[in-house]
Amino acid sequence: MILSLIALTGCSAMPGAADAGAGRIDLVMLQPPRSGLNPLSDDAFKLSRWSTAETLVNLDAAGDPQPALATGWSQSDRLTWTFTIRRDVRFHDGTPLTAERAARSLRAAAAAAPKPRILDGVELTVTAEDDKVLVATATPDPLVPHRLSSPQLAILAEKAYQGRTVNPVGTGTGAFVLTKVDGTSGATLERNERYWGPRAKAAGIEVRFVPDGTARAAALRTGEADIVEAIPVSQAALLDSRTISEVPMPRTNTLYLNTARGAFKDPGLRAAARAAIDSKALVTGVYEGRADVAAGLLGPALPWSARRPARPATVEPGPANGTKITLATFTDRAELPEVAAVLRQQLERAGFEVELVVREYAHIEADALEGAFDAFILSRATVLDSGDPVAYMVSDFSCEGSFNIAQLCDERVDAALEEAARTPAGEKRRRAILAAEAAILNTGAAIPMLHERVLQGDAKGVTGSVKDPRERLLITTDTHAR
């Protein structure tokens, strides 16, 4: 079954609409919806950050699973996990949450094409028995609870699933009800007066999507916004320092090299590109010191990643000799075009002839995934989905990965990823993850350059917004603006 999202329109007023204009939060976000707020796409993270769509499981600050719409779980056997569904929860359309409705949401995600990243390489069978949801995998999977915390596996009401469509408007369970989506311009949410948890302090949320970083910063400076995500580094110094929060995050700025065709099919030229890049210059210049030089794909937001073993160079750099390459990135993250300009200079000094391609993300993603460019600069969250890096590594670097911009297919990488995936959570799994990271980097397919930090703007009257390194939470029941 192919699930996609048709155009969304406003729905009838939901509980809390009478509070419109009183205690509302004006929120400015970076990227507009990529798939019309399709909850099975990356747009699910917007729904999660607005506290409108919820999952069976949440993750705590340490990345360990905690109850959400499921009150608890256990492993029935090596392949099956049993989740107990929370009582007295209602969807925004008034229908009660049941185990069967939760199972239907998970089955829809598992059957989607393309399926959510968190399910790459995972076969799920989902059934319901009384108040229990049974999730079985084809092979033992120690991370099933972590997977079910992914915002792409949010539980929605039955009416969200109509034929080939999935519509999140008025179909979640969260503290705020999504009532209207205005294309790629904005969205409106109202407080859910029937929420199963604490009543939200804010009456509602008005969302605007503003890709231009200078305009986002201006909205905070002029008082037009209460909360602004992704303040550009170049704008941070122009704002009141008391309104800026900075937190290391599991997001890596990486150069992906096309290993399937073109110049970087040659491992020697991949090594030449790696030798040409000066990451420190990017951190001090483009990011004004508000980032960390990358030693690997994983950074300081995962402190255990610093225990990676030494990794000697496996391939000697070859001569560029005027080799022509296309270097691409997108405008939605304000720093990336400047990163691309600096990389162009560094690569040209190493002997490459570089054509630069810069577009909005919505207009470049498809080409990047099809391998249209020799090199692509991507700001990538490394534990966005499950709180565990394996899902990101499988998605980006396995032969069957759905986000494999590097077009990489390497038996040693796949074997290392499979070993990491089947290792139980804990120190042994962390060692397996670092071994997989080493296998990936040894191919030269990815050159990690720097680890970004969260720069979030909160107006002085804002209380309770979340600075979440995983970018899952932003506005909760405690968030309000005075």
Précis, in short:
With 482 residues, the chain is an alpha+beta fold.
Number of strands: 21
CATH superfamily of the largest domain: Periplasmic binding protein-like II
- Straight-line N-to-C gap: 46 Å
Mean pLDDT rating: 91
Name the poorly predicted regions: 1-22
CATH topology label of the largest domain: D-Maltodextrin-Binding Protein, domain 2
Explain the overall architecture:
With 482 residues, this protein is α+β, with helices and mostly antiparallel strands. The chain has 2 domains: 234 residues, Periplasmic binding protein-like II (D-Maltodextrin-Binding Protein, domain 2, 3-Layer(aba) Sandwich); 205 residues, Dipeptide-binding Protein, Domain 3 (Dipeptide-binding Protein, domain 3). Helices cover 23% and strands 24% of the residues. The chain contains 12 helices and 21 strands. The strands form 5 sheets. Strands 1, 10, 11, 12, 13, 14, 15, 16, 17, 18 and 19 form an 11-stranded mixed β-sheet that branches. A 4-stranded antiparallel β-sheet has the order 4-5-7-6, covered by helices on one side. Strand 8 and strand 9 form a beta hairpin. Helix 10 packs antiparallel against helix 11 and helix 10 packs parallel to helix 12. The N terminus is likely disordered.
Key terms:
11-stranded mixed β-sheet, Dipeptide-binding Protein, domain 3, disordered N terminus, D-Maltodextrin-Binding Protein, domain 2, alpha+beta, 482 residues
